[in-house]
Amino acid sequence: MVAVLDFIRESAVGDLVSWQHQLEAARRFSLSPALVEGIILDNGLLPARYQRNRQTISQSGQRRLFHSRVAVIGCGGLGGYIIEELARLGVGTIIAIDPDVFEEHNLNRQLLSTPDNLGEYKVEAAFRRVSAINPAVTLIARQCSFTADNAAELLTGTVVAVDALDSISVRMELADACSALEIPLVHGAIAGWFGHITTQFPGDETLQSIYGAEKSCKGVETSLGNPSFTPAVVASLEVAEVCKLLLGQGTPLRGRQLAIDLFSMEISVIEMNGGDLKRG
Amino acid sequence: MRVTVKLFASFRTGRFEIETGDYPPGTTVADVADKLELPRNELGIMMINSRHVKLDRVLNEGDTLALFPLLGGG
């Protein structure tokens, strides 16, 4: 460990360690790029790929992201962008959960889908994508449906869970599981030009407030569909929430829901426990 | 009695954004939704004067009712 740290320190320019040197350290000392990234960050240095995160995310914040585990439930429209952004952000471990394969009707919006990978499991595409864009991030692919029964096992060690599901009934199971396991849940949902996002902390019944006693699986997206831009917007807002929760900084959407209307270009803030309905 | 209804997202299509109208005493949220031909299974958040309410809630003079569609996609 001393030898690898010496190598890293000698190759650093200022406090930045280039990807080339990170890979060389991994090769020379038979370590994974992820392990080397941990050594870099644990010793006050920064992988050079994160230099533009600076000011927004400090070196210690970057270290915190690396040592965090985030679960993304659903790898479709929202999930594809969420996984991309978490990996580029430098979140160390991402658990990607989805039972499905890509189909042609996913191509209009799902970032991880291409004509060449139709029929491939979405979590496998997520694994390949993350390996390509940030090999220091560990993506754990779980090709299965999220249920109340496997929730505890799937979410073990998770600091934050991200809702990228397309089913309201499964969302409610996820919300209940997150409360029981004391994991904050960042929720997003989309339909057509519209979306909403909020963050449920353990014990809050935020998703109950949104969906109430609704037992159906789908919302108006069944008639409106989903274009390319709505999942990108809502996914990015969800990742911003995740980033704040992991860093313990900023003001999360606790007890508030953003209702996004891209057709009228309006964002409404709904106070979940009553209060003013503001237009942003 | 006078009630203001605010519609959001897809509920505005073919309807309105905000409209104040006369409703008979005893009108419920469900009555307003039915009058506007908003399918029950599409109703998401419903608020009167910024407070969350259910379908059977009776409206009062001067209330503002806000209706959001149910979004479930991902």
Describe the structure.
- The complex is a heterodimer of chains A (280) and B (74).
- In chain A, 39% of the residues lie in helices and 18% in strands.
- Chain A has helices spanning 2-11, 19-28, 33-42, 59-66, 77-89, 122-133, 151-154, 168-181, 206-211, 221-224, 229-247, and strands at 16-17, 46-47, 69-73, 93-97, 138-142, 160-163, 185-191, 194-200, 256-261, 266-271, 278-279.
- In chain A, strand 3 (69-73), helix 5 and strand 4 form a beta-alpha-beta unit.
- Chain B is mainly β and 74 residues long.
- Helices cover 9% and strands 34% of the residues of chain B.
- Chain B has a 5-stranded mixed sheet, with no helix packed on it.
- The termini of chain B are far apart.
- The model of chain B has no long low-confidence stretch (mean pLDDT 95).
- The A-B interface holds A 74, 76-79, 163-168, 171, 188-196, 209-212, 214, 216-221, 224, 226, 231, 257, 259, 261, 263-264, 268, 270-272, 274-277 and B 8-10, 12, 17, 41-42, 44-45, 47, 50-52, 54, 66, 68-74.
Tell me the series of helices and strands of chain B, N- to C-terminal.
Answer: EEHEEE
Count of DSSP strands of chain B = 5
Supply Rg of chain B. 12 Å
Q: Please count the beta strands of chain A (DSSP E, at least 2 residues each).
A: 11
Distance between the termini of chain A: 51 Å
Task: Compute the separation of the termini of chain B in Å.
Answer: 40 Å
**Radius of gyration over C-alpha positions of chain A, nearest whole angstrom:** 19 Å
User: Tell me about the biggest sheet of chain A?
Assistant: 9 strands, mixed
Oligomer state equals heterodimer
Overall pLDDT of chain A: 94
What spatial form of chain B do the alpha-carbon principal axes imply?
A: globular
Assign the structural class of chain B, choosing from mainly alpha, mainly beta, alpha/beta, alpha+beta, or little secondary structure.
mainly beta
Strand content of chain B: 25-35%
* Mass-distribution shape of chain A: globular
Structural class of chain A: alpha/beta
